[in-house]
Amino acid sequence: MIGKTRRGDIAIGSLFAADALLATGWTRDVAIEWDSAGTLTRVIPGAVPGGEPVAAGPVLPGMANVHSHAFQRAMAGLAEFRGHPTDDFWTWREEMYRLVTRLDPDDVEAIARHLYIEMLRHGYTAVAEFHYLHHDRDGKRYDDRAEMANRVIAAAGNSGIAMTFLPVLYAHGGFGHKPLSPAQKRFGSDPEFVMSLVEEVSTFNLPDPMLRVGVAPHSVRAVDALLLTEMVEAANRFDATMPIHMHVSEQSGEVADCIETHGATPLDWIRDLVAVDDRWCLIHATHLTQIEARSLDGSGAVAGLCPVTEANLGDGTFEFVPWFEERKPWAIGGDSHVCVSPFEELRALEYSQRLRHRARNIVADESAPDVAANLWLGAAAGGAQALSQAMGAIEPGKRADLVVLDGSDVDFAGLAAAQSLGVAMFSGNANRVRDVYVGGAIVVREGHHPNEALAAASFRNALEKLRAAR
């Protein structure tokens, strides 16, 4: 139960943490308080318990998942049979398109609700839904064009996860204005359609402290110069602080095609057309050159990395070390949801860099030697920026998004909090999350979500229907 006291006429929630990961590092005996809106009001180190609930383990700031295609959770692990001598993203995509041709709104909502509950149970407290499944199975608009958008937003609301909803601009099937394939017609959109979704979702749902709305030009292969500039200009007119997410340099083949078509890399092509600033999240950014990375100095743009999906697809590894050394913002995403845990995403990021550089403890330096803390704090802060949500740190003014590790876990015996986080991140696949708060409301208690059984049953029904149609 959340502790409740009263000061004046303001209800305040509270939690006492023997150990909390603040922006300055691990801190002992922290009293955490928030107001009735779920905003942190006081964070007091060196406190003494005063009757408020005591966290059952170390407390972390909630994590943002900056890149989600929720419907792809239904095919996680199902593209692992060799179909071509050079299997890569492009052959995986054909399996994804087969799923796309079978999905109905009820399926999408059931899949998303189950997924978002899984995310919460593993420590994500917010998600950016990169939403491009707009139309029906024939590529025709629903009577309510926001039908699919409303389904994923409803799933987020039912689960209790915060969402940044990103309707996607997807106009071409490839470079050179290639027409959309039959499966891609479900994604087809233009700036007018995207902004109509933004306006409808905003009118119906906002203000809502758990929902933010942005836009997502899909990629350099799916938009052209005119569409990209129109999209950004329309977003700026609607809300000049609106988040903008875009796939950038995800596959080496895409980079080569962009250079052949436009005479520029994807990032250079984008930056020639529009200003890339701190509202932007560059999803994947896998094949950015160091010259391109340096060109982003001072922009504030976030590198949105999806390490497990990038490994699953064989896309390559982002050169993370210079980005980390220069303390540029970065974040993590689940993308295709072969992984639903931020701990595993962060482990994959660190391990990819160890393999790349043939060294250990990469995301660290003399001033910040704790790898696990660096990974968690960096991803939490960058994710909050990318989602434009007031989260990502345990400090006054931020939302009370808190993740409590299970201090009774046998592997934590005799360990300090910093070592426990290291074990949670780098030892096995057990989920060490016990409790999760979003905006001061407890949504996961003792490892369980109140709606998990019903959500799992709906998810099972959707899977059985979809797989019977294969």
Highlighted features:
14 helices; Urease, subunit C, domain 1; alpha/beta; TIM Barrel; 17 strands
Question: What would your notes on this structure say?
Answer:
This protein has 470 residues and is an alpha/beta fold. The chain has two domains: 3-60 and 403-452, Urease, subunit C, domain 1 (Roll), CATH 2.30.40; 63-387, Metal-dependent hydrolases (TIM Barrel). Helices cover 36% and strands 20% of the residues. It contains 14 helices and 17 strands. The chain has helices at 89-100, 105-122, 147-159, 191-205, 225-238, 252-262, 266-273, 290-295, 307-312, 320-325, 342-357, 371-387, 417-426, 452-468; strands spanning 3-7, 10-22, 25-34, 40-44, 59-61, 63-68, 124-131, 162-169, 211-213, 216-217, 244-248, 280-284, 302-305, 330-332, 402-405, 433-438, 441-444. Strands 6, 7, 8, 9 and 10 form a five-stranded parallel β-sheet that branches. It has a four-stranded antiparallel β-sheet with strand order 1-2-3-4, with no helix packed on it. α2 packs parallel to α3 and α2 packs across α14 (452-468).
